[in-house]
Every structure is written in C-alpha cells, then in structure tokens.
Amino acid sequence: MISIDRSIVIDLETTGFLPQRGDRVIEIGAVVVERGELVDEFQTLIQVPRSIPRQAFRVHGITDQMLAGQPLPEEVFPALLDFIGGNVLVAHNARFDLPFLRHEFGRLGLGFPNRHVCTLELARRRLPRLPDHRLATVARHLLGDLPDDLRLHRALDDARLTARVWLAMVT
User: Tens digits of per-residue pLDDT, 41-86?
Assistant: First the structure.
C-alpha cells in the first residue's frame, strides 16, 4: 500500500490522445495532498508548436489563442519535476496522463521514476456498481453535489476534484 502522507494529484489537458503521434500536453494542474489536506498547487497552460484540433477543444475549451504567450515545455516540465519531486502521483485515468508525462519529460532528457495511483482503477474496484467511473460520477457518489464554479476538463479543477476523491477513498 502506498503511503498517503504526501502525494501529488495531477491532471493534464492535451491536443489529443496519443503522444507517440505528436499530441502534446497543453495544460497541467497539480495539487499537493499532505496529511489529508490540499496544501499547494501548480497550474499552467503550455504553448506548444501544434494546433488544437476541434475534437480536443470540445473537451477542454482551450484555444490556440489561449496558449499564445504561455510558457514553453522547456520551461514548464523542469519546474513540474521540481514540484512533484519523488512523491507518489495520483491521477484519474493514469493510463492517459502518465504516458504524456513520460513523453514530455523524455523529450527534454528528464527522468520520471515516480510511482503512481490511479483513482479510476481504484473506483472501479471499490465502487463497481456505479453506472460509469468518470471523475464527475465518482465525485458525485463520494462527495455529493459538485461545486457550481467547477470547470470539468480543466486541469487544476480536475486535479482538485481528483484530490478530494482520492482522500474520500483512502481515509
């Protein structure tokens, strides 16, 4: 069992589904969870040399114009690596997020040895009767109504919500 004294909950928004086909991370949200509390955050949009396809825009609402002038991957990923350190990462659907992180860190020659926990897999095991295991469904089941100002499919809001789901499932 992984200790929950300190973990980093992370969420990404991307230009598509496959980093090996050139899709890139365009937004990162990360939340430090320490002894059951959300204590620090990391959030940034990222300017990448790839246009956002309409299909991706429909999911997260991020436009090419929103990315103009934002930090470049070469600035963001070393800072993210400093932020996460050697801590355990938590993600809802880690099978999506972690390959993107590995790809982006690898492009810069940076290692990425962090262990991880997937709240999607955990929810499937612990809550098998839910109609689906999307983040919003699991959160409503565990936490009740979602906040009115929550922007699903934006990285920091999803990371915060995942952190609350994570805490509800392990405490």
Answer: 999 999 999 999 999 999 999 999 999 999 999 999 999 999 999 9
The count of domains in the chain is 1
Which candidate in 103, 116, 141, 153 is catalytic?
153
Pairing of strands 6-14, 25-34: antiparallel
What is the CB neighbour count within 10 angstroms for residue 168? 14
133 is catalytic: no
Single pTM value for the model: 0.96
The residue among 91, 130, 159 whose CA lies nearest residue 99 is 91
Q: Which H or E element spans position 8? A: strand 6-14
The domain that holds 37 is classified in CATH as 3.30.420.10
As a whole number of angstroms, the distance between CA 17 and CA 49 comes to 16
The boundaries of the domain holding residue 30 are 6-170
